[in-house]
Design goal:
mainly beta, two-stranded antiparallel ribbon
């Protein structure tokens, strides 16, 4: 949880930004770059996105030209934020929870 970003599940092998960071560089499943993650309240609908790929391009990095290389998302289920780019869907995702690991 940091600033105005929320993520339900962060992808293994990706970046987990520290608390207080405002770099829009954590990606996973159920993402939003414009919300209050502590209350679940949406602050700006432009920045919601369901599935993003692992990538490392913090918003403050001058070498990350989001008009040329947008944040890579899977599918088209996302807000209209100018840094987002629709992409292919690589599969289906499901979360299985059990008290028995076998």
């Amino acid at each position: 949880v940091y600033t105005d970003n929320g993520h339900r599940i962060v992808l293994t092998g990706g970046n987990l930004s520290p608390i207080g960071s405002y770099d829009d560089n954590t990606h996973g499943l159920g993402n939003h770059f414009g919300c209050d993650p502590l209350t679940g309240k949406e602050l700006n609908p432009l920045w919601s996105h369901e599935i993003s790929n692992i990538q490392d391009c913090p918003i403050q990095d001058p070498s990350c030209d989001f008009k040329v290389n947008p944040i890579r998302l899977q599918g088209t289920d996302h807000g209209d934020g100018w840094r987002f780019g629709s992409g292919p869907v690589y599969g289906n995702y499901a979360i299985y929870v059990s008290e028995d690991a076998s």
